[in-house]
Amino acid sequence: MENFGNEDWISALPDELIHRILSFGVDLDGVVQTSVLSKRWVNLWSTFPYLNFKPLCSTLSDYKYRKFITKFLTNRNQQSDTCSINISLSLAYQDEFVTTMMLYYAMCHGVQKFRITSANIKSKFNFPVLRNLSLHSCLVAFMDLSLPCLTTLHLANVLNPGDNLSFKEFRCLKNLTLEGNSVLYYTMEVFRIDSPSLQTLTFLQGEYYMYPALCKFVVSAPRLEYFKYFGCYVPVFSAEGGFPCLEEAVFYINVDEYVCNWDDGNQVSETIQKLMALLRVFCQTNRLTLFLETIQVLSKVLDFSKYRPSPFVNLWWLNLVEYMPPLLGFENPIIPVNHVINYLISNSPGARVSTKLLPMSVADDDDT
What we know:
The chain is an alpha/beta fold. The protein has helices at residues 15-22, 28-33, 62-75, 96-108, 182-185, 265-281, 292-298, 338-345, 360-364; strands at 50-52, 84-88, 113-117, 120-121, 125-126, 132-136, 139-140, 145-146, 152-156, 175-179, 190-194, 200-204, 216-220, 226-231, 236-239, 248-253, 287-291, 317-323, 352-358.
């Protein structure tokens, strides 16, 4: 075997590869600290394109946090590319100066991916090349943001004071995720999503106390290929023009006892009616994925004759998914599902049925 001695092979790698290695799990504090390793690393941090700022914590004062960000951005190589920015403030520390500085820096340096948590975005900004935007626990007026190239948008507990967001202004939008966003539509009767280029739509809803009981979701997305809904209640959806390109629809609906009292026949009947109406909206899908909790709701229907024929005429696959028991010896309740399966695939002669077990860790990672 050839003896390579004590040669530093990592330092011999090109800057781009070292940057990529450091981008996995290393925040900017750690990246800056690499400057003491050797002369090769002294200025390497200044061209690092993945700006992942450490979240503000109780052990770091507001002043020191602002000072570090300001110093880092000022001394960074202004000619180098900036691929992404990720900054997380705290709910108690929504520093408008830091927020504005980060947005301005992203705008001037052609950032393509930007994620910010707990921010109050007041100023107007034009992001000509931004493609991926994630806003978490933010107050933002979307009418003040120009995002002509945006393709991916993730909104988590975002408040839009304008109350006129329809996504129509994002002409290139292909991927939309709405997570726990009842604050967007809690008081609205109709929440519209108009997006002619949209291909994937994901709803990750909150707990029962944020249940938007009066809100109806109207979706116009003729190119939609993938839909996912995770929540504790059955939403009311309608599709303008249908979803002729839909390839897969995924439903995890674990109806909360605060939403439906399973001992109340009227509430159970209403919940079932809503679920059947929801499935009909996505009847053009090729693959239907239902989690056990959703099947449990459907199993309350003992006779599907009044719902026949099945709305699914294009099904290739019916996927039944169950989370693995988290504790040894724990078993999920056995529920009758054959009559549910037979009904769902009855109008799709070539449909196949598959079952899958997911560990709880996979569920937490939102990987279905």
